[in-house]
Amino acid sequence: MQKPLILVTNDDGITAPGLRALVRYMKEIGDVVVVAPDSPQSGMGHAITLDNTLYSKKVTIDLEHGGQEEYSCSGTPADCVKLALQELLGRKPDLCVSGINHGSNSSINVIYSGTMSAAIEAGIEGIPAIGFSLCDYSWEANFEVAEIAIKKITERALSHGIPKGVVLNVNIPKTNGEALKGIKICRQARANWKEKFDKRTNPMGKDYYWLTGEFELLDKGEDTDEWALSNGYISVVPTQFDLTAHHVIQDINSWSLNE
Amino acid sequence: MQKPLILVTNDDGITAPGLRALVRYMKEIGDVVVVAPDSPQSGMGHAITLDNTLYSKKVTIDLEHGGQEEYSCSGTPADCVKLALQELLGRKPDLCVSGINHGSNSSINVIYSGTMSAAIEAGIEGIPAIGFSLCDYSWEANFEVAEIAIKKITERALSHGIPKGVVLNVNIPKTNGEALKGIKICRQARANWKEKFDKRTNPMGKDYYWLTGEFELLDKGEDTDEWALSNGYISVVPTQFDLTAHHVIQDINSWSLNE
Fold this sequence. Notes:
Two copies of one chain form a homodimer. Chain A is α/β, with parallel strands linked by helices. Chain A has a single domain (5-189, 221-243), classed as Survival protein SurE-like phosphatase/nucleotidase (Stationary-phase Survival Protein Sure Homolog, Chain: A, 3-Layer(aba) Sandwich), CATH 3.40.1210.10. Helices cover 23% and strands 29% of the residues of chain A. Chain A contains six helices and eleven strands. In chain A, strands 3-4-2-1-5-6-7-11-8 form a nine-stranded mixed sheet, with helices on both faces. Chain A has a two-stranded antiparallel ribbon with strand order 9-10. In chain A, β5 (95-102), α3 and β6 form a beta-alpha-beta unit. In chain A, α1 packs across α4 and α2 packs parallel to α3. At the A-B interface, α2, α3, α4, β7 and β8 of A face α2, α3, α4, α5 and β7 of B.
């Protein structure tokens, strides 16, 4: 039997430890091709490169673990997936996995996430896709705690199939050595960022800002990704790219916009 | 009575004719403050500036029509909204409008849209928000066909209130002079882009790509934005930023991931 072809990408760049861990896990499940940004692309959301050129380079990384076909790309995570599917892969992949992101993509963070935009791009193209993120921003984060769960979620996704129009957003809590409690299927918690701009003056006397902020959870539900993560569970949110708020169509029809 | 405060932004940049038209229409409804990118940001999706500095400049444009408070910003559309709400506006705006985009943001385009990401960012912050787009990429596009409809949708949104967690994605068909047929509340059509990469070689001998593609409509429904637009109607899609695919949570729970 042919092994499944798995496209691996991310938003932290092709040399990020999170991606290298994901590649190792995926190689136990299928044939791996990596197409990932040549530089960090955090917070890129679903940006694509429209008015600029894209470069792609075949690279060799991590021969210690056997090596595989790998390409770096000058574009965004969504660009990487588009380029992989149209130009770089010999056949349609059976799965696209993105990550493991260095940092959370739970709740509202999904909107800003380059990791998830790569998975969503694959989903739009009809490829089953999963984004994996570890809630630890450190470059030295311990990804191994999640190895078993990541492989299990991936294998189940391949055998059951992910429903059409849906990609999985998987977040893994940061642990201090204790075991993970399990895996929970969740909804996206309602939350936002309370921005604070750090205003400074550059050496030329011009004011500029750094965007900083504090995460604000607005949701007390126990069926959310935030609840799962703060209680030691891995969260899996089925995430869709039909953004229609079907439940309010009737309400807005009552505005009688044609009168 | 105090006039409503309306934040106007876009993704085509602060000098784009589409934004100037929207500013003119909004000044008939409320007090306008403009915070918009200093350069085109099409296809930026929901990108935000995390690892770089943000500049903002008070500018004066279009004094011929009376002038108003305006700021250009070096960041993405979502950055503009964050900066406006936290730093530049004296009070919380009653509405945020984004556009008028030069080009369609219907169906799957909403995912890549800088215009809509600005509106969604405002929505996340609890500000009623609407993105307006004209299905005409030309810089000389005729925005006036939609003036009455844009003002009507804006006024109804202010008087009825947009449901929480929802922003409006309004697309206006390109017309060749004939009257618009009306306004339809729609769902987002299922569609994608069939990418084609135009591969070239630069003067230094290095290969590069341009992303091009063809729009592929996969949806025959007559309740979609694409149907409305190709039949001469303005489409209004209520759009949400809770991406949870609630309808498949049960299905994925049957994977028994904890066994």
